[in-house]
Write a sequence for this structure.
């Protein structure tokens, strides 16, 4: 019987040793993963960075409010909804609603696909996707 107890004791020690080794490796791997994942730097893994806008980056012009006097000075970048559900146009990097003005330009109508603006006496329909 003593031989059996020694054998069982030895097996228990091996199991405990294996468990301690497994837990140690698990902790080491989780620390490594947490450091690489939460390092504060975004890694796109060679895919498109979702934090870079799809439109409007190259076409952005440095136009101040008073310099908008022709349609060439207008860059329609998107449509956004406010907390009341009203549509706003993103033009030259500014969020604008119907009736608002930027220089000579006035917003007349906004939909999900286009915005109508008036510059002087002429009205233009700017499409988001052309």
């Amino acid at each position: 019987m003593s031989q059996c107890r020694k054998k069982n004791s030895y097996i228990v020690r091996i199991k405990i040793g294996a468990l301690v080794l497994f837990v140690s490796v698990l902790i080491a791997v989780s620390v490594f993963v947490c450091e690489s994942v939460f390092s504060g730097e975004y890694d796109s893994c060679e895919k498109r960075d979702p934090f870079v806008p799809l439109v409007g980056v190259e076409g952005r012009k440095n136009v101040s409010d008073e310099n908008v006097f022709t349609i060439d000075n207008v860059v329609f970048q998107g449509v956004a909804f406010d907390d009341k559900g009203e549509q706003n146009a993103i033009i030259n990097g500014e969020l604008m609603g119907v009736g608002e003005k930027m220089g000579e330009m006035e917003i007349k109508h906004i939909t999900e696909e286009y915005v109508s603006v008036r510059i002087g006496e002429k009205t233009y329909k700017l499409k988001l996707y052309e």
Summary: Confidence is low (pLDDT under 50) at residues 57-63. Strands lie at 76-81, 87-91, 94-96, 101-102, 105-110, 114-119, 122-127. The longest strand covers residues 76-81. The chain has one helix and seven strands.
